[in-house]
Specification:
Largest sheet: 4 strands, antiparallel
Radius of gyration: 32 Å
Strand order of the largest sheet: 2-3-1-6
Structural class: alpha+beta
Strand content: 15-25%
Oligomer: single chain
Helix content: 10-25%
Order of helices and strands: EHEEHEEE
Length: 136
């Protein structure tokens, strides 16, 4: 039987939790949920006990018990329902401003370059004297 143990002290270790439940019978596994970034436990965990009668005794005896200054909550764990929703990830990539439109193929950038525009990227530098019309 899977057992949820909540409001655990942050200093408790898996072997200490296992010893607490072994007083009531055989413990198959113990898992304390850890935060990936801080590597500290999140304050809850799961205990698996194969014998349902022993598990019920442990739940009744340990629910509301104070351990290391915290009152723990011990209940039968509920099965997590699977998500059947399809994830939607959007139409494509964007720049940091979110301006990229895949259908129009417009690429805004720092230089102001646009695909398909009549002026090329180097057209402004073609006349070294500056100003005036092109081609004369």
């Amino acid at each position: 039987m899977d057992i949820f143990v909540g409001s655990l002290p942050f200093k408790i270790k898996s072997d200490q939790l296992k010893a607490l439940f072994e007083e009531f019978g055989e413990v198959e596994s113990v898992k304390i949920i850890m935060d990936k970034i801080t590597r500290q436990n999140k304050g809850f965990g799961f205990v698996v006990m194969p014998n349902h009668h022993e598990a019920k005794l442990a739940i009744d005896a340990l629910n509301g018990k104070e351990i290391m200054g915290r009152t723990i909550i011990v209940t039968v764990s509920e099965e997590k329902e699977p998500d059947n929703k399809k994830k939607k990830f959007g139409k494509g990539g964007t720049n940091f401003k979110g301006d990229f439109d895949k259908a129009k193929k417009e690429f805004p950038g720092k230089s102001g370059f646009q695909r398909g525009s009549s002026r090329g990227a180097g057209a402004a530098r073609s006349n070294p004297k500056g100003g005036g019309r092109r081609g004369r």
